[in-house]
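Run log // design_07
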């Protein structure tokens, strides 16, 4: 998920320099980070309830 954090920082802090092709490629290859994050949240919610 560290790569996703770096991507978020780029979008938030350096949005003027965003290369849309790189954004597209990143999203095509790094969505598993989101899936892992969602899985961890679901597990946490199940334990908390």
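design_07 sequence
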């Amino acid at each position: 998920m560290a790569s996703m954090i770096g991507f978020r920082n780029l979008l938030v802090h350096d949005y003027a320099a965003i290369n849309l092709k790189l954004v597209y490629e990143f999203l095509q290859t790094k969505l598993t980070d989101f899936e892992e994050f969602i899985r961890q949240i679901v597990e946490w919610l199940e334990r908390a309830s």
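The two ends are 26 Å apart (CA to CA).
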